[in-house]
């Protein structure tokens, strides 16, 4: 029994040491299988890559860098783990793949005319001890084809319901479709996405259902593809399709007279103006509560009067037909008496002449009064002639009166013109 205890105490330490060795080996295994594009600051030999997105037919640039190198070579491998470049040496005979730059710390390659099969993970490796790798994911976008609109190859009638379908194929990921009517977006049904059996792309279909009016005639219906490849300068294909909508509608009619004041004895016509799709070609003229005047002639959209007469007064109706529907309208004709119009015109001229004459007379009177006022107040001056010299009996008395008589002399005013 005592010997058994001794053997057990001796085997436990050996088992503990074996466990430690296994743990250390596992740690070394993890350390030697570093496969990440995460940058470890403490490992200057770890490669650094970047994910790329490119459209079909474009060019993608793959860059792999390390901070330091111990004379080990950098290598790029494709999704099938085939070596593309080992340093400066081409390993795969594919002329689409070219070397851009190769140094001790950097390896850059390009892939032109990218295909859907180029989609996947690419690996950059540096053959140090242990070997270090980094992955770069290349996402290849399938470029959607030009959208195709179907559903209204023929003209549609006013107030009818139209169902239009837009289809675009070849997108990856699936594209989104948008409808526009004269630059205004119209909501369509949710897109239907179907995968293509021969390649990893999708076909997207959208429907637009709406009721048309006459205002929609010649409107532009557009289907636009929204896809990430639209932002790529290398993306190919047109992303927008437009078609003109033709709507058939009955005519709207109005009557346009030759003048607003038709005079008796003059030539005159009424024109029936109709707007419809198609354009109206059949016009019917009628006179309400009676026949058309004998001198009135129907000339398609025109009703012509060779010489107006008072008997032509009345309500005239025009009806236009374009095969889709009919439209009608009426107009009241009132023929004017030319003599009454001339007399009225003469009276008006007489009244205007009288008013002008009165205004001229008043202006002349004002000028005369103003002239007389200005003449009477033109200006004054003072004279100091000696009073009493004319009544003196002799010359000496006159001189005395003249020398001393100024103090009592009244001012004498004289007016001059």
- The N- and C-terminal alpha carbons lie at a distance of 172 Å
Shape: elongated
Give me the CATH architecture of the largest domain, please: Sandwich
Biggest sheet, strands in spatial order? 1-9-8-3-4-5
What's the overall average pLDDT, rounded? Answer: 82
Instruction: Give the SSE string.
Output: HEEEEEEEEEEEEEEEEEEEEEEEEEHEHE
Q: Any low-confidence stretches, pLDDT <50, length ≥5?
A: 1-20, 22-40, 380-386, 405-417
CATH class of the largest domain: Mainly Beta
**Largest beta-sheet details:** 6 strands, mixed
What helical percentage do the residues reach? 10-25%
Radius of gyration: 55 Å
- Which secondary-structure class do the elements indicate? alpha+beta
β-strand amount:
35-45%
Summed up, the helix count is 3
Notes on the structure:
The protein has 417 residues and is of the alpha+beta class. The protein folds into 4 domains: 1-32; 52-136, Immunoglobulin-like, CATH 2.60.40.10; 148-245, Immunoglobulins (Immunoglobulin-like), CATH 2.60.40; 250-336, Immunoglobulins (Immunoglobulin-like, Sandwich). 19% of the residues lie in helices and 38% in strands. The chain is built from 3 helices and 27 strands. It has helices spanning 2-32, 338-376, 395-404, and strands at residues 52-55, 60-65, 74-77, 83-86, 89-90, 97-102, 106-111, 120-126, 132-141, 148-150, 156-157, 161-171, 176-181, 184-186, 192-195, 202-211, 219-226, 240-245, 247-257, 268-277, 282-287, 296-299, 302-305, 314-321, 326-333, 381-383, 412-414. Strand 4 (83-86) and strand 5 form a beta hairpin. Residues 1-20, 22-40, 380-386 and 405-417 have low confidence and may be disordered.
């Amino acid at each position: 029994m005592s010997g058994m205890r001794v053997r057990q105490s001796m085997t436990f330490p050996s088992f503990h040491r074996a466990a430690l060795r296994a743990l250390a080996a596992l740690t070394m295994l993890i350390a030697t299988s570093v496969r990440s594009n995460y940058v470890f600051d403490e490992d200057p030999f770890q490669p650094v890559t970047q994910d790329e997105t490119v459209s079909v037919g474009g060019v993608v640039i793959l860059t792999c860098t390390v901070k330091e190198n111990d004379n080990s070579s950098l290598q790029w491998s494709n999704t099938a783990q085939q070596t593309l470049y080992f340093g400066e040496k081409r390993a795969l005979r594919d002329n689409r793949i070219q070397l851009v730059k190769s140094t001790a710390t950097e390896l850059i390659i390009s892939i032109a005319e990218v295909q859907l099969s180029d989609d996947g993970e690419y690996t950059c490796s540096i053959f140090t001890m242990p070997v270090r790798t980094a992955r770069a994911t290349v996402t290849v976008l399938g470029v959607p084809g030009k959208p195709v609109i179907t559903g209204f190859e023929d003209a549609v009638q006013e107030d009818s319901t139209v169902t239009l379908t837009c289809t675009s194929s070849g997108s990856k990921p699936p594209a989104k479709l948008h409808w526009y009517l004269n630059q205004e977006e119209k909501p369509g049904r949710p897109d239907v996405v179907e995968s293509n059996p021969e390649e990893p792309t999708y076909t997207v279909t959208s429907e637009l259902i709406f009721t048309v009016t006459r205002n929609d005639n010649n409107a532009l219906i557009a289907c636009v593809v929204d896809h990430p490849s639209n932002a790529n300068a290398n993306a190919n294909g047109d992303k927008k399709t437009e078609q003109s909508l033709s709507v058939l509608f009955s005519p709207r009619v109005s009557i346009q007279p030759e003048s607003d004041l038709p005079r008796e004895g003059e030539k005159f016509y009424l024109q029936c103006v109709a707007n419809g799709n198609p354009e109206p070609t059949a016009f019917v003229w009628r006179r309400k509560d009676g026949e058309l005047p004998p001198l009135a002639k129907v000339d398609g959209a025109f009703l012509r009067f060779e010489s107006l007469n008072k008997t032509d007064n009345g309500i005239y109706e025009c009806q236009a037909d374009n095969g889709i529907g009919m439209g009608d309208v009426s107009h009241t004709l009132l023929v004017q008496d030319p003599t009454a119009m001339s007399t009225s015109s003469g009276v008006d001229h007489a009244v205007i002449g009288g008013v002008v004459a009165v205004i001229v007379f008043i202006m002349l009177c004002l000028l005369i009064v103003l002239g007389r006022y200005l003449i009477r107040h033109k200006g004054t001056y003072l004279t100091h002639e000696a009073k009493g010299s004319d009544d003196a009996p002799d010359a000496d008395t006159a001189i005395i009166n003249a020398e001393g008589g100024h103090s009592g002399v009244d001012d004498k005013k004289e007016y001059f013109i």
